[in-house]
Amino acid sequence: MSDLHVVLGATGGIGAAVVAELTARGHEVRAVSRGGAAFRADVTTTEGAIAACEGAAVVYQCAQPKYERWAKEFPGFIRTVLTGVETAGAKLVMADNLYVYGPVDAPMTEDLPHAATNPKGRARAEVDRLILDAHRTGRIRAALGRVSDYYGPGGVNTTIGPTVFAAALAGKTARWVGDLDQPHTVAYLPDVAAGLVTLGEHAEADGRSWHLPAAEAITGREFLGLVRTAVGGELKVAGLGRGMQRLIGLFNPTVRALGETWYQRDRPFIADDSAFRQAFGPVKVTPHADGIAATLDWFRRNAA
Predict the structure, then answer these.
(1) 4-150+186-214 CATH
(2) What is the pTM of this model?
(3) What angle do CA 278, 282, 284 make, to 5 degrees?
(4) Fewer beta carbons within 10 Å, N or C terminal of the chain?
C-alpha cells in the first residue's frame, strides 16, 4: 500500500510547512509546485493534476489562486484537483479557512451555517461543497482543516508576515491589520501543518471539516507587544484601520480585497478547536512567544 503523500503548492507557506511535517514523521513525500519544487506540475490543468497526484495515498491541497481571484477561479481549480485525486484513488486533505461562516458574534464551531454572502466567502463555500460532495458520493475520501490567519517561518503571503516581522526587524512601524484590541485567533504555521498531517493520517477525520488547533486568541496589541519584547528594543506599532485599507486598496488589489471581510478584523474573531482536540488529542501547540521568536529568526535569515 502506498505511503506517498503529495503536497500541492509545496513552495507556499502552508505547503512548505506540511512538507517539513510529513518528512519529520517519516512519510514519503512528493512536493509539487509550478516551479522551485522537486516535482513541477501545473495543477490548474487536468493533465498536471493527474500527473501530480499519481500514486498518492494522500494529497494535501495547499495551492490557491491569487487572493483577489478566488471568486472567479477557486471552484474550477478545485474541480481539476478532484479529478487528479480521484484518478489516483487518494484521500484529499484541504487546507481551508474560516471565510464560509461570514460575520459571527461568538466563537466559531464547525457546525455553523455557511452564511457568508461576500464573493470570497461564497467561493470558499462552493469549494467545500464540491469536496464534501465528492466524499459523500464515493469519488474520493476527504477532510478539511480550517485555520484563521497564520504566521511563522515562510509565512510571507499573510497579513501577519512582512507588515509585522520584516517591518519590526527593519526598524519600521509594525502594523496589525484591523482593530488592535479585538481578540483574534492566529495560528503558527508548523502547528497548522501538524494538524493537516494528522487529518491525513486518520480515517476518522474523513467526511467533515475541522478547526485546526492554535494557541489562545490574542489581540493585535498583545501580539505586537510580544514582537517588541522579542526584538529587544523600541518598536513602533499601529493598527491598519478601514480608512487606510481603503486608501491603500486604491493601488493594491490584494489590500482592496480585504474590505470584503473586514468583519474578521473589527470584532472578536475566534475559532473553537475543541472538536479536533477531543478527537485527536492530546494536542500540543506553540505558545505565541515561541512562535514569534522563531518567525523573527526566519525573517532575519531571509531578509531581502
Answers:
(1) 3.40.50.720
(2) 0.95
(3) 120
(4) N
